[in-house]
Amino acid sequence: MKITLIRALLWLCVAVQAAFFVLAWTTYAPSIGSMTIDMTAIGLPFGARLAMTAAQRAIGAALALPAMLVLFLGLWRLDRLLLNFRRRELFTAQSIGHLRAFAGATLLATLLSIVEPPVRTLALRLSGNGGQHFAVGVNSEQLMLILVCGMFYLITRLMQEGRRLREENEGFV
Question: What is the 3-state secondary structure (H, E, C) of 76-134?
Answer without folding.
Answer: HHHHHHHHHHHCCCCCCHHHHHHHHHHHHHHHHHHHHHHHHHHHHHHHHHHCCCCCCCC
